[in-house]
Design a protein that fits this description.
CATH architecture of chain B: 3-Layer(aba) Sandwich
Structural class of chain A: alpha/beta
Number of helices of chain A: 14
Oligomer: heterodimer
Largest sheet of chain B: 7 strands, mixed
CATH topology of the largest domain in chain A: Rossmann fold
Number of domains of chain A: 2
Structural class of chain B: alpha/beta
Mean pLDDT of chain A: 97
Order of helices and strands of chain B: HEEHEHHEEEHHEHEHHE
Mean pLDDT of chain B: 96
Radius of gyration of chain A: 21 Å
Shape of chain B: globular
Order of helices and strands of chain A: EHEHEHEHHEHEHEHEHEHEEHEEHEHEH
CATH class of chain B: Alpha Beta
Strand content of chain B: 15-25%
Bound molecules: thiamine diphosphate, magnesium ion
Strand order of the largest sheet of chain B: 2-1-3-4-8-7-9
Low-confidence stretches of chain B: none
């Protein structure tokens, strides 16, 4: 079959890719700039074709707990929201991580804090990568930088979620969610049969047959000895994910004297900044973390040895730069440049910031 | 020999295998244990053990899943109706029930309760109204009676400070999505028999696609109320039944 190229918004591509990934359920609550996700699903009515359930909940508290229920029953379920809604979900996300439930949570970020702005931002980096909810847990965090990746990462996210029994967050932003680009959607995967669910999720609550003990999904363990073991089990899994699932992209790094680090929409802008800098004779490269957790510490540390300085470019007040500094360990200067409140930095601004803060 | 009496013809009672042998953590005299037993018996008699998924609350019944031989999920405080909604939507052929206290269902989870009922989710909500936060040590609940003493209203619930006892079950009757709503108790043999019938109906309704069933159990919390089990039952009959009268409120 010939690949069909479509022109879609990131949010639309996400919705259509979710259906094609074989998802069983989507639960959400409207919020700009990601409302097109549920709007697209409701218009397409996948329950009439693949059988996927789509439900508008009464709040993000409810939608994340619907995801909890569905995931704990072995189904492939997801939600999407934007920053304030993701804040409201944090208790549920912590429960989902604690119970080791596979699911996809999409944050199409807008500028905060508070009700903030509906314009794009990357200011939920800390929340996504350092916890957000209570307790010692990690989400696998994927940062798409194009509409194509909004679609591709939907499939990848579910695969990783089920592989590790861990929630995956797609940390997009209003720019990627709202802009239109050419995209080839993934092939339609069939939804898993009941037999496949039982085989893939023998731990889930799909109804106890006489052949097994009850399956219980709970995060409660009052005995500290056992609770410590639960935590150690989680930490072991996080180590395994860190060892195997780091993803990043390099751009013009082979001869680079200076380096930009940026993710998501900012990485797209930084590619242009690299071109502009090179046109001016500055040998600039870019590393784009694709997984924000696990973070590509090693790749950045290796590049750091070859360059004179690094600029972390983000649409926030300087969050990922802390991880860059952890990677670089003070071996070369690391500075930060960012715009706040929904303002998108231009390539010019980035090159100027590089000259002022790094090249001097 | 004394064991000679263990003959089939002498057997008057057998514990349902849907309830396991784990000793319950509930206080002697608490209503939770009786309601657990009734739920297990109904599931057993209906032959739906393999097709039933329960949702435990945060509250004294947080460990409900330890006692039932059924698949169970433990929901965050108040969120059981949302959790149940998703399971039932994704597995329409399963029986899905929540088991919640008054704080869980009528304070922190009010929105989830109302909206699951308003959508007419084909689930059964079992609501244990003991007018107090049992688990956290006896604080005021939304259902605490006027003048009733708890650790956070030590001089009695004052409506000028704390508002009025919330009769959420009456409120749910108004919603078009609810199908069967009844208020029961388990303080004597007659009420236990009635309660069991109500539970059976509630479970049966899960398959009929006609809306949500809610069964409120007006209950005692003798520890939280600081009364003997017998005195707590008397106090419940005298005071709780006035604010929360027993009987069917809706059955369509
Ligand atoms: C988000 C959150 N807030 C508060 C608590 C603490 N908490 C645990 S149980 C409970 C009250 C339970 O009361 P109720 O629902 O009436 O159940 P009961 O113990 O009386 O059966 C509270 C406030 C919690 N676990 N989670
Ligand atoms: Mg209570």
């Amino acid at each position: 079959m010939a690949e069909e190229i479509q022109l879609l918004k990131g949010n639309e591509a996400l919705a259509l890719a979710a259906i094609r990934s074989g998802a069983d359920g989507y639960f959400g609550y409207p919020i700009t700039p990601q409302s097109e996700v549920m709007e697209t699903l409701m218009a397409v009515e996948p329950w009439k074709t693949t059988g996927m359930v789509v439900l508008q909940a009464e709040s993000e508290l409810s939608s994340i707990n619907m995801v909890y229920g569905g995931a704990a029953a072995g189904k492939q379920v997801m939600t999407s929201s934007s920053s304030p809604g993701i804040s409201l979900m944090q208790e549920g996300i912590s429960y989902i991580a604690a119970c080791e439930l596979p699911c996809l949570i999409v944050n199409v970020q807008r500028g905060g804090p508070g009700l903030g702005t509906i314009q794009p931002s990357q200011s939920d980096y800390f929340q996504a990568t350092k916890g957000g909810g209570h307790g010692d847990y990690h989400l696998i965090v994927l940062a798409p930088a194009s509409v194509q990746e909004m679609a591709d990462f939907t499939v990848l996210a579910f695969d990783l979620a089920f592989k590790y029994r861990n929630p995956v967050m797609m940390l997009a932003d209003g720019l990627i969610g709202q802009m239109m680009e050419k995209v080839v959607l993934p092939e339609q995967r069939p939804r898993r049969t009941m037999e496949q669910i039982k085989e893939q999720c023998p731990w889930a609550t799909w109804g106890k047959p006489s052949s097994r003990k009850p399956n219980i999904i709970t995060s409660l363990e009052l005995d500290s000895k056992d609770m410590e073991q639960n935590n150690l089990r989680l930490q072991k899994k996080y180590k395994e994910i860190s060892d195997h699932e780091v993803r990043y992209e390099e751009f013009e790094t082979s001869d680079a004297e200076y380096l930009l680090i940026a993710f998501g929409a900012c990485a797209r802008i930084c590619q242009k900044a690299v071109e502009e800098a090179r046109a001016q004779g500055i040998r600039l490269g870019l590393i784009r973390p694709v997984t924000l957790w696990p973070f590509p510490y090693k790749a950045i540390a290796e590049q750091a040895n070859k360059v004179k300085g690094i600029l972390s470019v983000e649409m926030n007040a300087g969050q990922m730069v802390e991880d860059v500094r952890l990677a670089v360990k003070g071996n070369v200067p690391v500075e930060f440049f960012g715009r706040l409140g929904g303002i998108i930095p231009t390539p010019d601004e980035i090159v100027t910031a590089l000259k002022e803060k790094i090249i001097k | 020999m004394e064991n000679d009496i263990f003959k089939p013809e002498n057997l008057v009672y057998t514990k349902t295998p849907v309830l396991n042998d784990t000793p319950m953590h509930y206080c002697p005299g608490c209503s939770h244990g009786v309601v657990h037993k009734l739920v297990a018996e109904v599931v057993d008699e209906m032959g739906i053990q393999e097709d039933t998924i329960g949702i435990a609350p945060v509250g004294c019944a947080v460990f409900a899943y330890r006692y039932f031989e059924m698949d169970f999920q433990e929901a965050a405080h108040g969120r059981a109706p949302a959790v149940a909604t998703a399971i039932k939507r994704l597995y329409p052929e399963k029986y899905v029930f929540t088991y919640q206290g008054d704080g869980d269902l009528a304070a922190i989870g009010t929105a989830e309760t109302i909206h699951a009922c308003n959508r007419g989710e084909n689930i059964l909500i079992i609501f244990i109204n003991n007018a107090i936060y049992g688990m956290t040590g006896g604080q005021m609940a939304p259902t605490t009676l006027e003048g009733m003493k708890t650790s956070t209203c030590p001089y009695g619930r004052d409506t000028t400070i704390n508002g009025y006892p919330l009769n959420i079950t009456d409120l749910l009757v108004q919603l078009k999505g609810t199908r069967y709503i009844t208020r029961q108790s388990v303080h004597n043999a007659a009420s236990i028999l009635k309660a069991k019938k109500a539970l059976k109906k509630g479970f049966q309704n899960c398959m009929e696609k006609k809306g949500t069933s809610v069964i409120e159990f007006v209950s005692t919390c003798n520890s939280g109320w600081k009364m003997s089990p017998a005195k707590a039952n008397e106090w419940m009959v005298e005071n709780m039944f006035k604010a929360y009268p027993l009987g069917d409120l809706k059955d369509i």
